[in-house]
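Much of the work behind modern protein science is quiet bookkeeping, done one molecule at a time. The protein below has been through that process, and both of its lines are reproduced in full.


***
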Amino acid sequence: MSQPLASLDPNVAMSKVGQDSGGTATAKAPGAGQKRRRERSQDNDMAIDPSSIRLPGEYEGEVQIDQSCNQIRSKIRRFLESGEMKVTEFLREIHVNSNSYGRFMKLKGPYAGDGNSTYEAAYIFFKKRKLAGKKISAKKSKLSAEDASKWDVSDIHLEGEEDETVEIYDSCDEIRRKINAHLRRAGITRAAFLRTIGQMYPEPRKLQSTQLNTFLQFNGPTRGSEGSIYYAAYVYFEKLRIKNKEPKTSHREGMEDAWAVDGGAKHGKEAASYNRTGYICFKDSIPVMDQYGRVGIEHKTGLGRRRR
């Protein structure tokens, strides 16, 4: 017969039991110092393996989820940025394949992805951790002076910096990939990253976490190109590439082929206008955007494509 789990309420503690002079058992209330020590050591004293917890309806596939898809995506990002697990480790833990995870994380909206296996699996994962008293750590090891210098690009200058006209040769999706990878590095926090890329403008800007969250939730080569994060992050990562003497990627070369004639990919107000462009097609054709953000007219029969 299975034994009930220990109390999961962090406010409940075991009292010390003694005996009075008459032999009657009495509960001895902990003092303030004992309470503080108890709270500090709570995770160790009452450690519960999250996997040993069973949620109502879990085995029947009927877990009641009380958080939106966007909330779960946000939790996943914060958890991975904490460095506690890498993406592959997290996916093994929740038993979800990378394709399902990738599709879920690219979606945006409170209900977008509610049929994806990642949604329920991640919810169960975080719910069990909460019941076990394990929180997503917001702390990261502090950067040493040596590590901080690795990410310092103040001595790198790009043409066009003075008037915010640096030519961009990364798609929004590529910038999102770079940001997510960078935030998973030890010692790199969102706040520090936003302060750093805010310095990439001629007049430094105070970029907000909400702006970053919004940009990361988009999906598509041009989605988010009108915002401040796209330009600032591109300039920072391009400076970092030059500092580290890294070669251009195939994606970068493809972006140059697609956008060099226009002076780089569109951003800011130009991007806002470009992203609202409508297209008139023949009934046997459709507008198609490639991975670099260029739109072409493609015949449904697949006979060819004419680029805009």
